[in-house]
Design goal:
By secondary structure, the protein is α/β, with parallel strands linked by helices. Helix 4 runs parallel beside helix 6. It is globular, with a radius of gyration of 15 Å.
Amino acid sequence: MSKILIPVDGSEASAAVLKALPAWLARLAGPAEIHLINVQHPVGQDVGQFVGHDKLQDFHREEGLKALAAVHAGLAAAGIEASRHVLVGEDAAVVISGFAREKGCDEIFMTTHGRGALAKLFLGSIAAEVVRLADVPVTLVK
């Protein structure tokens, strides 16, 4: 069984995996185990001083599940089961590639665009960084 990791940031662009994934999965030899992941950016230390650790964990989990909701529901409607994971980290590409390694994923399937062009100018492309860091093939969808 192939393990496929799909990073989702909650943007409309990240929902593009819904169009491409079913046909791509049909080409695999056998069933696939799908993992959806959302990476939440940690809050600043100033906030952390006033909000308890449990509250912050709940907040990140809620926000992450919201970001995953549309893609998870779309996959379910297509009869594709997927597990959902919400992680917190400064660098989404490092978290994504590390999670793929930890879970023994065979491939990462992700969109090329999530944030707006201006943010990408300053932050760099997460997809390009995942391609650079990942130990497994990365399929990029426009």
